[in-house]
Amino acid sequence: MAISVREIGKTFVAEVEGVDLSRPLDAETVAAIRQAWWDHSILVLRGQSITEEQHIAFTRHFGELQDHSVKDWLLPAHPEILVLSNRGRGGVKPLDNGGAYWHSDMTYEAEPPMGSILHGLTVPPDGGDTLYTDMYAAYEALDDETKKLIEGRMAIHNYRHRYMKMAEGGKRSAPTAEQLAGWRDVEHPIVLKHPDSGRKALFVNEGFTVAVKGLAADESEALLARLYAHCVQPQFIHAHKWSPGDIVMWDNRCTMHCATQYDVSKYERTMHRTTIKGAALCQAVAA
Ligand SMILES: [Fe+2]
Q1: Among residues 105, 134, 246, 251, which one is catalytic?
Q2: Which domain covers residue 152, as residue numbers?
Q3: How far away, in angstroms, is 103 Cα from ligand 1 center?
Q4: Which residues of 136-149 are buried (b: 16+ CB within 10 A; e: fewer)?
Q5: Catalytic annotation on 238?
Q6: Residue 6 burial (10 A CB sphere; 0-12, 13-18, 19+)
Q7: Does 9 fall in a domain?
Q8: Which of 8, 53, 114, 256 could form a cystine bridge with 278, CB 3.0-4.6 A?
Q9: What's the gap in Å between 257 CA and the centre of ligand 1?
Q10: Is 103 one of the annotated active-site residues of the chain?
Q11: How confident is the model at residue 91 (pLDDT cuts 50, 70, 90)?
């Protein structure tokens, strides 16, 4: 299968053409997609009409699948698939405007995912886009003083804070004892050296980063707010406007994403996500 890779919008996003994921992929095609993914952080494959099994099989080319800790959204027949659906398709709990805050997936895990592969099934005609930001570019654009300030520092991540905020707003069920016990503080470097590319990327996110280790609460809050504001400047952002059948796959270690709002009473938005296991990230590195 001859594929073509075309950069779209920003340098960290490319569209891959000439791939039909409903058919088995040969090793050469898989290798070409993998290379394109390392080159671009985010890949878009349009018009994919695939089954859940084919989505899972495609994901397995890039690593082992990771389950989500919130079982409410796992597809009963295929728990490797997380269903993001405001209509609760497939027997899962409905999720309205679920990822509408800037985050990288599951950084509250000691070993955050390497990446995610999202398949748009039913998408609203207006809103419900996904914004992506390039955390390599965001790091590189920091001033020297800020790079020095974050050099060698670790940040603390935990899911509890985000989940409880959503639960209090009625968007999540009360946490189970198992969930509460499982949500522990984990630490990751603020500046990570990407394990595959060797490039440095910022690795804090509004979704799950709760503090900078070793700073007073007010200093930590101010620094994180400043970094978040820096990362989401327009020059770093690519907006993906969904069409049914689109697949977007992102490297979770060097990007953040955020869904935009849409009218949940008027439109359906249903997506399937698979998540690829990652590894513990290296210790804090020098800026
Ligand atoms: Fe997400």
Answers
A1: 105
A2: 4-276
A3: 6
A4: bbbbeebeeebeeb
A5: no
A6: exposed
A7: yes
A8: 114
A9: 6
A10: yes
A11: confident
Distance CA 219, CA 283 (A): 22
The one-letter code for the residue type at 127 is G
Question: Is residue 105 flagged as an active site residue?
Answer: yes
How do residues 159-208 score in pLDDT, each as one tens digit?
A: 988 878 777 777 777 888 888 888 899 999 999 999 888 999 999 999 99
pLDDT tops 50 at residue 74: yes
Please tell me the distance from the alpha carbon of residue 130 to that of residue 102, in angstroms, as a whole number.
10
CA angle 130, 136, 137 (to 5 degrees): 85
What is the predicted pLDDT for the residue at 69? 73
In a domain, 18, yes or no: yes
pLDDT for residue 284 is more than 60 = no
What CATH number corresponds to the domain at position 19? 3.60.130.10
What stretches of the chain show up as alpha helix (H) in DSSP? 27-40, 52-60, 135-140, 144-150, 160-168, 177-182, 217-231
Asked whether residue 286 is assigned to any structural domain, the reply reads no
Specify if 284 maps to a domain. Answer: no
Q: pLDDT tens digit string along 3-30?
A: 999 999 888 999 999 999 999 999 999 9
Residue type, 194: H
Set 55, 103, 119, 188: catalytic member: 103
**pTM for this prediction:** 0.93
